[in-house]
Amino acid sequence: MFGKSLRILAIVLMGFSAAMMVLGGIGTICIAFWPEKYPTLSMMVPYKPIYQVAAITTIVAGLFAVRATMRLRRFQARHVRAAIIILLVSLATAGVKMYFSSKVRGSVAPTNIRFYLSLLTMVYLLILRWPGVWQRVRTESPDDQSGQIGTGIAAIVAGIPTLTVQYWAASTHVLQGVNYADVWHWQLAVVGWSLIAGGVWLLLRCWSKEARFNLAGDSDLQSPPLPF
Question: CA-CA distance, 181 to 55, in Å (whole number)?
Fold first, then answer.
């Protein structure tokens, strides 16, 4: 049970990190490609190439992080290793953005959220890879449901910031009275609600399987053996 809980938490943290990578990369597109359009971002024009590389790399890393989250359902060593590598890329791009944003704009938000979340997730996965811990965490049974449960919770957790990005990112994305974190409102709403609906469906599916398994087990226990 303890190992199952550790696996679920790892998948949830990775899914959350993946969502923040994708959202962070998308949120950097304006400052990376068109800072000259906004007076408050004009000082970032000389740094466009750096931010362009960071934005594209972050989005690609985020997509790979989504794939890594789904592969963690089996929780094998190679899948954990791949997730750690992706998190290192996220830390690198976030660190570069934080350095230049602090130097030029005097602010590192909201990239700092992604940085510390990626760091937390990576440290947690490294701890799970310790030999003593890994023996308890690795999946031992092909019928184990922790992967599906973790993926379902991760989808719900990822859907929440996707739906609410226009609120928690507004402080750094309101330019000339326009909240640019809400520009893709309906697109993000569709993705966010789809993640939540998919996560709920996975959890209900796990619950249904568990209920059928318990019912079958009870029937076997209650049925007396045949006399022939």
Answer: 15
**Which pair of tokens denotes residue 195?**
């993640």
User: For residue 68, which of 114, 164, 60 has the smallest C-alpha distance?
Assistant: 60
Question: 10 Å Cβ neighbour count for 75?
Answer: 23
DSSP 108: -
Angle of CA points 55, 59, 60, to nearest 5°: 115
Per-residue pLDDT at 110: 81
Separation CA 111–CA 28 (nearest Å): 9
Domain ranges for the chain: 2-222
CA gap 168, 23 in Å, rounded: 12
CA distances from 134 to 28, 139, 168, 197 (A): 37, 10, 36, 32
- Provide the β-strand partners of residue 175: 178
SS3 209: helix
3-class DSSP state for residue 225?
coil
What's the pTM? 0.84
Q: Using CA atoms, how far apart are residues 117 and 169, in angstroms rounded to an integer?
A: 16
pLDDT in tens, 196-205: 999 999 999 8
Using an 8 Å Cβ cutoff, are 42 and 36 in contact? yes
Per-residue pLDDT tens over the stretch 78-133: 999 999 999 999 999 999 989 988 888 777 878 899 999 999 999 999 999 998 88
